[in-house]
Amino acid sequence: MTHLTLQAVTKRFHTAYAVDHVDLAVPDGKLVCFLGPSGCGKTTLLRIIAGLETATSGTVAFAGRDLTRVPANQRDFGMVFQSLALFPHMTVAQNIAYPLRLRRVAKDAQAARVAELLELIQLPHMADRPISRLSGGQRQRVAIARAIASSPKLLLLDEPLSALDAKLREAMQVEIRLLQQRLGITTIMVTHDQREAMTMADEIVVMEKGRIAQVGKPLDIYRNPVSEFVADFIGLGNILPVTLDGTDRIALPGGQQILVDAVQRATGTTGTTGTTGDVRLLIRPEDVSMRAVMGNPGPNVLAGKVAFIRDVGSSLEATIECAGFTLTAATTPRETPDLRVGMPIFAELPPHACKLIAARTAH
Ligand code: ATP
């Protein structure tokens, strides 16, 4: 069942389009991430859904009801902002109870709900602590408890983890996701961090200049991006300009020819957006395999030299200089213990992992 539906939602500030004809259906109980670079319209779109911003045109409907002109305080959505906006002079319990107080929920029902939420966010002993004496992660949990206190049907999160350091941020991503799944609450989260979106989302909405560039499950988008913009934004990738000549091969920047699967050639000749244009080869680093000797000289084996190694213990990335371009290959230190900077190497690009995508258009 689809709960939230956006139809042709557009927001213009003066002459500039912050959000440009966005159509979207958010399924019930799912966590959807709006992902994209700074200024692509994520926050504006979230604010329109929240009712904090009025769309220039288009409609927002929830559970079949048109909300386009309904003010924020009548939408019944929970929201957590980047700043968290907790009340510093109040205790944890008072903060969590705040939306219940506004709704004039009876005092004992408020207390029971607050106790339940404190258990849920694993801060049962902190009810009377002032906000100023909480850590960043604890504040984060209180902000979420406050947002869900009155059991909203939709939870909106605007970069809620951006103030946290990297380690805590990763832990909170898992915590929020598990909580969201336990409660089954439909959630939309804005982030510009693709790893965060991949960790948490059922579906990612990739935005580019106010428009939706692609919507899909995280791994589908990662494996089958529709454009260079999306490929580049989601995960690490080798993106190389290539030339097609109508045969079963494509030419790399150095002139070397490699085989790609027929379906990929078809995509490349029509362009993924349906028009003939410049084409790029996308191959993810984990799909590039390295070997020290040529071995079986397949058509997709390229000679190169190891230019740099980023070994962080759990994973290893090697930059390989080939004639006319560089490639990144990802592996683990355990798999490639003998890799050294400067050594000659052979990189294999399996045909099935070579994707052809439309090149980014000039703006
Ligand atoms: P960030 O990740 O930096 O928060 P974002 O993707 O959330 O960016 P928005 O904040 O939605 O982007 O902004 C989209 C565009 O609309 C930007 O070009 C921004 O400058 C513009 N914009 C946003 N709010 C206003 C406003 N109140 N008045 C004029 N322009 C605005």
UniProtKB/TrEMBL annotation:
Residues 4-234 form the ABC transporter domain. The lineage of its organism: Bacteria, Pseudomonadati, Pseudomonadota, Betaproteobacteria, Burkholderiales. InterPro entries: AAA+_ATPase, ABC_SmlMolc_Importer, ABC_transporter-like_ATP-bd, ABC_transporter-like_CS, Mo/tungstate-bd_C_term_dom, P-loop_NTPase, Transp-assoc_OB_typ2. One of its GO terms (molecular function) is ATP hydrolysis activity. Keywords: ATP-binding, Cell inner membrane, Cell membrane, Membrane, Nucleotide-binding, Plasmid, Transport. It comes from Caballeronia insecticola. PANTHER family: SPERMIDINE/PUTRESCINE IMPORT ATP-BINDING PROTEIN POTA (PTHR42781), SPERMIDINE_PUTRESCINE IMPORT ATP-BINDING PROTEIN POTA (PTHR42781:SF4). Pfam families: ABC_tran (PF00005), TOBE_2 (PF08402). This is ABC transporter related. GO terms for cellular component: ATP-binding cassette (ABC) transporter complex. It comes from the Bacteria. SUPFAM superfamilies: MOP-like, P-loop containing nucleoside triphosphate hydrolases.
